[in-house]
Backbone:
């Protein structure tokens, strides 16, 4: 892998984190977004990441300054990708926006450039044709708070070249990620293929009144040695996200149980401002949740 110049397209929540982490690990980064106003916001978002690197990674100020210096900003797509080895796309999760973007990008980028999508729910094969270079396209999926939740799921579509897949795996490692290669397309990648059914099953046990939140979490923690049970994980994910997933599932399946789950999350949690860890309360109260107490698992 001899990538040097990385362009990050879309500088929102994830794009700004990917840009900063990549620069922090020594690559030249260009941030591309739709206009200069969006790029000004990106500069603010990136500056706000610095204290996290200091607190969580003990990163020295000199290294953070050097990372900032390695980031350029450009709202002209052709200029932003002119010498890019890799473009990482983190633009909105809307199919048509991504198709339009890849169509333009395929024309603007030099032949050498590899494209990677950070999409959480869409598959690379949906955009492979629009790129005009399906062999040089795949998914590279990060988790929020990339500097500490450092997974990178690298997922190929049937047309991805082996060389490209291996290069992107090596790149992910080079920017400090634990690289997790997926040899075939899988909606939800590995993590959400495991996590979503677990969280869903926990909520089903609750609305069926089989057991309460603490008993369900305790079962998982004691039996598997996991540090968090499913409801503690839901507090990290956020109750709003869990509600949106439950609601979508209720609509898609017309299953009364999912409607009950969504209803419970809304009336007992969202309407009462209990949105999870971020607001200090969800299924548990923070900063001292009952599941962290020494006698919880007895
Ligand atoms: P966001 O809304 O925070 O940011 C999107 C950015 O894209 C904005 O800066 C916006 O100005 C820009 N944008 C819009 N249209 C564009 C275009 N045509 N060209 C270039 N830039 C454009 O979104 P986000 O949460 O960072 O998510 C971005 C992608 O990352 C999505 O595909 C999402 O599935 C994925 N993702 C998000 C998370 C997360 O926790 N937020 C985690 C993993 C993956």
Residues:
């Amino acid at each position: 892998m001899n990538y040097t110049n990385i362009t990050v397209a879309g500088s929102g929540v994830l794009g700004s984190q990917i840009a900063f982490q990549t620069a922090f690990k020594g690559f030249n980064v260009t941030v591309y977004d739709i206009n200069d106003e969006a790029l000004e916001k990106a500069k603010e978002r990136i500056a706000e990441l610095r204290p996290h690197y200091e607190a969580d990674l003990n990163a020295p100020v000199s290294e953070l300054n050097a990372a900032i210096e390695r980031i350029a900003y450009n709202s002209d797509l052709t200029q932003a990708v002119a010498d890019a080895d890799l473009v990482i796309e983190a633009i909105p999760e809307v199919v048509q926006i991504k198709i339009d973007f890849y169509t333009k990008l395929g024309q603007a980028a030099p032949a050498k450039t590899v494209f990677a999508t950070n999409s959480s729910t869409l598959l690379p094969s949906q955009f492979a044709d629009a790129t005009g270079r399906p062999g040089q396209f795949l998914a590279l999926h990060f988790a929020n708070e990339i500097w500490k939740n450092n997974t990178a799921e690298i997922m190929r579509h049937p047309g991805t070249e082996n060389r490209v897949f291996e290069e992107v795996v090596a790149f992910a490692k080079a920017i400090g990620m634990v690289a997790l290669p997926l040899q075939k397309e899988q909606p939800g990648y590995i993590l959400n293929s495991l996590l979503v059914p677990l969280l869903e099953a926990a909520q089903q046990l609750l609305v069926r009144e089989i057991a309460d939140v603490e008993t369900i979490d305790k079962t998982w923690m004691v039996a598997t040695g996991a540090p968090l049970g499913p409801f503690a994980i839901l507090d990290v994910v956020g109750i709003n996200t869990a509600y949106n997933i439950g609601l979508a599932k209720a609509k898609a399946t017309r299953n009364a149980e999912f409607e009950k789950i969504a209803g419970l999350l809304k009336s007992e949690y969202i309407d009462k401002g209990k949105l999870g860890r971020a607001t200090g309360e969800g299924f548990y109260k923070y900063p001292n949740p009952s599941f962290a107490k020494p006698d919880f698992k007895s």
